[in-house]
């Protein structure tokens, strides 16, 4: 899952990005995964 897709999913659930460390960690992990995959 791309970071953009995650953010769109959060939008559908009406969850602000900046209120949860867990979501921030998940976004960072996805970004790292993209980097590791060479995307």
UniProtKB/TrEMBL annotation:
Family annotation (InterPro entries):
SAP_dom_sf, T4_recomb_endonuclease_dimer
Pfam families associated with the record: Endonuc-dimeris
User: What highest taxon heads this organism's lineage?
Assistant: Bacteria
Which ranges carry the T4 recombination endonuclease VII dimerisation domain?
2-27
Record protein name field: T4 recombination endonuclease VII dimerisation domain-containing protein
Provenance organism: Listeria immobilis
């Amino acid at each position: 899952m791309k970071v953009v897709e995650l953010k769109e999913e959060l939008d559908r659930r009406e969850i602000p990005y900046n209120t949860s460390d867990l979501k921030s960690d998940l976004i960072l992990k996805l970004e790292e995964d993209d980097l590791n995959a060479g995307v």
